[in-house]
Amino acid sequence: MRTRFLFVRHGDSLHKQEGVTGGPRSCRGLTVAGREQARRLGRRLAAEIAGTGASVYSSVLPRAVETAAAISAVCGLPFSRDSQDCGLCTWHIPPEADGLSNEEFLRRFPAEGGGVHRPFQVGNESWAELVTRVSRTVADLAHRHRGETVIVVGHAETVEVSFNALGLLPAYRSFDLEVSPASVTEWVTDEDPGQWPPPRWTLTRFNET
Ligand SMILES: O=C(O)[C@H](O)COP(=O)(O)O
């Protein structure tokens, strides 16, 4: 019984191009190149999951939703509003910061003493809160889809948290991870994802473009 998670970062996005925070109000989805990346990735994944099927989930932000919709369309998999989960989002920034340039966000919302448990900006999540939120969502999906393949379309942080949720790394790690647009990171286990103690997952590829 193999359970397989394919974590995908969204394709090239307008928020990156424009240098804005890109929350629910200001995210305007993918660039033209990003849409093509998503379709190309969909074709690759369609070949990989042929015969096994998969379930597709995304965050609620348009850049992830568009990427997931493109992948699902190419693969012939269902994808609806019910497949979109805020638990898979990147940072939950304060609503007043949504749409600001990144520089302005850092300038107007500084929080001294930011760390693992205290946020780096006023009103933002802490890293530990983000890790817990995303990990909880991934754990629920693993439980619901034991023995199946799950495609999770999110953000750089969603992919990073796969190391906490499945690899059980502590929240603080002493190295950084580079996560490219439209990349795939895969974890598999042949153990029961719902067992206690937790199963051992294997990282079979990271940031594959
Ligand atoms: O830089 C950002 O806006 C956040 O880290 C979100 O990451 P994303 O570009 O993968 O959505």
Set out the fold topology.
Elements: E1 3-9, H1 14-18, H2 32-49, E2 55-58, H3 62-75, H4 102-108, H5 127-144, E3 149-154, H6 156-165, E4 184-189, E5 202-208
Parallel strand pairs: 1-3, 2-3
Antiparallel strand pairs: 1-4, 4-5
Helix pairs in contact: 2-3, 5-6
The structure holds 3-phosphoglyceric acid.
Residues 9, 16, 22, 90, 155-157 line the site of 3-phosphoglyceric acid (3PG).
Keywords: Isomerase
Protein name: Putative phosphoglycerate mutase
Organism: Streptosporangium saharense
Keywords:
single chain; 209 residues; alpha/beta; Rossmann fold; five-stranded mixed beta sheet; 6 helices; 5 strands; globular; binds 3-phosphoglyceric acid; isomerase; phosphoglycerate mutase activity
Q: What does this entry look like structurally?
A:
It holds the Pfam family His_Phos_1. Keywords: Isomerase. One of its GO terms (molecular function) is phosphoglycerate mutase activity. The protein is an alpha/beta fold. It has one domain (3-93, 125-208): Rossmann fold. It is built from six helices and five strands, in the order E-H-H-E-H-H-H-E-H-E-E. The protein has helices at 14-18, 32-49, 62-75, 102-108, 127-144, 156-165; strands at 3-9, 55-58, 149-154, 184-189, 202-208. Helix 2 crosses helix 3 and helix 5 crosses helix 6. It is globular and about 50 Å long. The protein starts with a strand and ends with a strand. The mean pLDDT is 98. The structure holds 3-phosphoglyceric acid.
